[in-house]
Amino acid sequence: MDLILEGIRKAFYLIFTLDPEVMGITLLSLEVSGTATLISLFIGISVGTAVALSRFPGRQFVVSLINTGMGLPPVVVGLFVTIFIWRNGPLGFLEILYTPTAIILAQAIIATPIVMGITLAAIQHLPADLRLQILALGATRVQMVWLLVKEARLPLLAAVMAGFGGIISEVGASIMVGGNIRGYSRVLTTATVMETGRGNFDIAIALSIILMLLAFLVNAILTQIQQRERPR
């Protein structure tokens, strides 16, 4: 119990004194996961909407792949991303292994199926005749898709929260492709693992608390927007 209390005290000390290293790790975590979430939103919403509105051979198989991807193990993503961007890998010429860019790539791959799956479900659960009503009013197909996405905005905000929550807290892929390099590619999760391995439990607890506070603040803001948009 004393160890936990010491960790809480350490967390607030690091926050209120604006410890440079901790603030750098926190800001990098937010930057990396925020960028990965934006990438996953662009790809996930686009593909999820396209699959939801299309009928083609093998569609059920594609939907099954998307749903399976929602539970994609981060360590598996980390392994394959590492292989692809390894010096002798297909994308080795990019030289991004053990960089924040590599972490963004891995986290985007993890978050995209989550956003895609929730988008697919949200669009599919809209009234079946809504699409026809929009087109009957003279809207183009692009306008129709945009209106459907707007209509499904509440579950899509849930997709944002699920995607961000799934990657801000993951550690397997981040430590494999980022290398946990001090001052360069160390994020809150990888720093927590490192401090735990060193036996610095008070600092590990402090970093964990900061991570949870960061996740809570981001999701609180998104929840506020979601509830404000909820139909009365």
* Poorly predicted parts: none
Mean pLDDT: 88
Which shape, going by the Cα principal axes?
globular
Proportion in helices? over 70%
The CATH architecture classification is Orthogonal Bundle
Outline the fold blueprint.
Elements: H1 2-16, H2 20-53, H3 59-69, H4 74-85, H5 100-124, H6 130-136, H7 141-151, H8 153-168, H9 172-178, H10 188-198, H11 201-229
Q: How would you explain this protein's 3D organization?
A:
The protein is mostly helical and about 230 residues long. It has one domain (about 1-230): MetI-like (MetI-like fold, Orthogonal Bundle), CATH 1.10.3720. The protein contains eleven helices and no strands. The chain starts with a helix and ends with a helix.
How would you sum up this structure in a few lines?
The protein has helices spanning 2-16, 20-53, 59-69, 74-85, 100-124, 130-136, 141-151, 153-168, 172-178, 188-198, 201-229. It has 232 residues and is mainly α.
